[in-house]
Amino acid sequence: MNSENFTLSEKIVSPSYIRQGSQARRSHEQLIRHLLEQGKCPEEGWSESTIELFLNELAVMDSNNFLGNCGVGEREGRVASSLVARRHYRLIHGIGRSGDIAAIQPKAAGSSLLNKLTNSVVLDILKLAGVRSVASCFVVPMATGMSLTLCFLTLRHRRPKARYIIWPRIDQKSCFKAMITAGFEPVVVENILEGDELRTDLEAVERKMEELGAENILCVHSTTSCFAPRVPDRLEELATLCAKYNIPHIVNNAYGVQSSKCMHLIQQGARVGRIDAFVQSLDKNFMVPVGGAIIAGFDESFIQEISQMYPGRASASPSLDVLITLLTLGASGYKKLLSERKEIYLFLAQELKSLASAHGERLLHTPHNPISLAMSLDGLQAESDKAVTQLGSMLFTRQVSGARVIPLGKEQTISGHTFRGFMSHSEAYPSPYLNAASAVGITREDVTLCIKRLDKCLKTLKKELNVAKSCSQAPPSSQEDTAGE
C-alpha cells in the first residue's frame, strides 16, 4: 500500500498499529530501493516475503496483469493454467524483443526491469568470484553448449573467412557439438601428459595457428572447469598467443564460477592477452534448474553484439531463478558456499586417498584441478576388463550419482570425428580411474556416504571376481563313465 492508503487505514484500525505495519513495509521497500540504486547483490540475503513482495510489484507492471487491459494482439501474456501463472509469478512476457534479448519490452516494464537487474546482480557476483575486470554479461535461457554456439555465430560476422576452431581436447560432447552446430570445423589438439595431469599442448596450438593461418581461424575454444586428470587449460599462455596472432578466444567456464582458481585464470588471461567471452552454466554454479547460462566478457560492445544475435524474445525463467537465488543467499551467503566447497574438496581428497590406499589404488596427483579428483582403478583392470565398468553400474544402482568410471580404450564418434580413449581426454591415458567432484552445495555427509558405498562396492566386486577366478581354475570333478554298464 502507498502512504495515502495507510492514512485511510488509520480510520479503520488503530493508527498506532497501522504505523507499525507501515514501518514494517518500509523495511522491505528500503531493501528493494538499495537493489534498484546499486544494481548489486545485497550483502545479506532477503527473506522470502521481501522477494515475493518485490516480484509481485514487478508483475503488476506488465500489461497482462493490468486490471483494465484489452489485448488484441497475438502475444498478450495469456496463460491457461493458474498453476503455471503462479509458478512464474505472473511474469509471462519473457525478456527482450524480437530483435534483441536485452531490449526493453513496452508491454512488460516489470519483466524488463527483472532482466536488467538480474544481469547487473550476476555481473556483481562474477566480480566477487574473482573476475574483477569483467565489463558486461547477460543471462541467456540456454545451457552452456548452445550459449557457446551463439558466441561462435557472432564471431562469424566479424571473421567471414574463418572455418576452423582450435580446441584443446576435452571429452564433453556439448562443447564439441557447439562448434559443429555453428558450422565450424573443430581442430582437436591433444593434451600432453605431465605426471598424472593432462595439460594444454601450447606448442601444438601455436603450430596450428601458423599452419592454418590466423584469418582462417574463428577462435581458440579453451576450457577451465573439467574432469580430472585433465586440468584447466593454460589460459594465460593461450590468451597471449591469441593476442599475438589476433585470434579471438572463447572460454568454456561451465562450472568455474565456484572455483577461485578458474576465475583467477580468466582474470589473468584477460590481463596479459586476449579473452573475448567466457560462458558459464547457471545450474552448476548457482544451484538452479537447468536451462540457463551467463555469457560475459571484457568488451561491452562485443557482449552486446552477442545478445543482439539471439533471435526473438526469450524465457525469463532462468533470469528469475538466479535472481531469486542470489537475493535469498546474498553476497555473504554465496561466499560462504564457495568457502565450504573448498573445505569439502580437501576433505574429499583426503577420504578418497585413504580409500584408494586401502584397496591398492592411488589418488591421482592433479593439483591444478580445483574441483574434480580421480582415483586409479588399475587393480580392477588387472582382474577383468569388465570390472571397471561394472563398478560404475554398481555405484549408480546404489544411488551414488555424479561419480564417473573411466575404462581404457573406449571409442566414441561425434559428428564424424572419432575420439580414442573417449572420456579420458586422451588417446592413451595410462590408467583407468574413477572421478568424484566437490561442487558448490556438496556436504560432508555426501562425501562420507559416497566413500562408504564406494568401499562396499569395491569389496563386493573383488569378492565376486575372486569367486569367479576360483571357479574357473578348479579342476573338473572326475566321474567314471558307466554308460556301457
From TrEMBL:
Cofactor dependence: pyridoxal 5'-phosphate
Name this polypeptide is given: O-phosphoseryl-tRNA(Sec) selenium transferase
Binding-site positions, substrate: R97, S98, Q105, R313
Cellular location(s): Cytoplasm
UniProt keyword annotation of RNA-binding present: yes
Keyword list, A-Z: Cytoplasm, Protein biosynthesis, Pyridoxal phosphate, RNA-binding, Selenium, Transferase, tRNA-binding
Site (May act as a substrate filter by repelling compounds with a negatively charged alpha-carboxylate): E74
Complex formation: Homotetramer formed by a catalytic dimer and a non-catalytic dimer serving as a binding platform that orients tRNASec for catalysis. Each tetramer binds the CCA ends of two tRNAs which point to the active sites of the catalytic dimer.
Catalytic reaction(s) noted: O-phospho-L-seryl-tRNA(Sec) + selenophosphate + H2O = L-selenocysteinyl-tRNA(Sec) + 2 phosphate
EC number: 2.9.1.2
Superkingdom classification of source: Eukaryota
Residues at which pyridoxal 5'-phosphate binds: R75
Positions contributing to tRNA binding: R271, R398, K463
Positions where N6-(pyridoxal phosphate)lysine occurs in the chain: K284
Lineage per the UniProt record: Eukaryota, Metazoa, Chordata, Craniata, Vertebrata
RNA-binding listed as a keyword: yes
Gene Ontology CC annotation, any one: cytoplasm
Any GO MF annotation of the entry: tRNA binding
Pathway membership, UniProt: Aminoacyl-tRNA biosynthesis; selenocysteinyl-tRNA(Sec) biosynthesis; selenocysteinyl-tRNA(Sec) from L-seryl-tRNA(Sec) (archaeal/eukaryal route): step 2/2
Main enzyme class: transferase
